């Protein structure tokens, strides 16, 4: 709804319209702008401590305690997105976590 009023002295037009919203590029064209998800799957051979150690050793923002929280989520839900970001970095983290013996889902674009 637009309400317009003209102020005689200043000849200004006042409206209640919101300014147009800027379109957010979600990177759906090339895939370069979308975040890539590193997903660890539940398995029968890794311990909670082993998962927490691997995550805290590979991912810079994950402490051992945060790794344990991820391990609990992986165990209870079956998987957890442990990192999301640029494709090249996601590939590097994915490979390093796999070297630690974690069961990894294929990388996926978010």
Main attributes of the structure:
single chain; 110 residues; alpha+beta; Ribosomal Protein L30, Chain: A; 4-stranded antiparallel beta sheet; two-stranded antiparallel ribbon; 3 helices; 21% strand
Report on the architecture of this protein.
With 110 residues, the protein is α+β, with helices and mostly antiparallel strands. 35% of the residues lie in helices and 21% in strands. It is built from 3 helices and 6 strands. It has helices at 48-58, 64-77, 87-99, and strands spanning 5-7, 12-14, 36-41, 79-85, 103-104, 108-109. Strands 3, 4, 5 and 6 form a 4-stranded antiparallel β-sheet that branches. A hairpin with a 4-residue loop joins β1 (5-7) and β2 (12-14). α1 packs across α2 (64-77). The radius of gyration is 24 Å and the shape is globular. The model is unreliable at 19-29 (pLDDT under 50).
Order of helices and strands: EEEHHEHEE
**What is the first-to-last residue Cα distance?**
37 Å
Instruction: Count up the helices.
Output: 3
Helical residue percent band = 25-40%
Task: Describe the sheet with the most strands.
Answer: 4 strands, antiparallel
CATH architecture: 2-Layer Sandwich
Tell me, rounded to a whole number, the average pLDDT: 83
- Tell me the number of strands: 6
CATH topology, which one? Ribosomal Protein L30, Chain: A
Low-confidence stretches: 19-29
Q: Could you say which overall geometry the principal axes of the C-alpha atoms support?
A: globular
Structural class: alpha+beta
Mind telling me the CATH class? Answer: Alpha Beta
**Beta fraction of the residues?**
15-25%
| CATH homologous superfamily placement | Ribosomal protein L7/L12, C-terminal domain/Adaptor protein ClpS
Rg over C-alpha atoms, rounded to the nearest angstrom: 24 Å
Number of domains: 1
């Amino acid at each position: 709804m637009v309400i317009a009023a003209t102020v005689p002295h200043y000849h200004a037009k006042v409206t209640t319209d919101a300014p147009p919203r800027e379109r957010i590029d979600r990177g759906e064209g090339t895939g370069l702008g979308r975040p890539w998800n590193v997903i660890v799957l539940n398995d029968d051979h890794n311990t909670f401590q082993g998962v927490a150690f691997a995550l805290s050793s590979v991912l810079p923002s994950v402490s051992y305690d945060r790794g344990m929280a991820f391990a609990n989520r992986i165990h209870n839900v079956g998987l957890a997105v442990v990192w999301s970001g640029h494709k090249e970095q996601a590939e590097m983290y994915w490979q390093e976590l796999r070297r630690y013996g974690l069961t990894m889902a294929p990388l996926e674009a978010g």
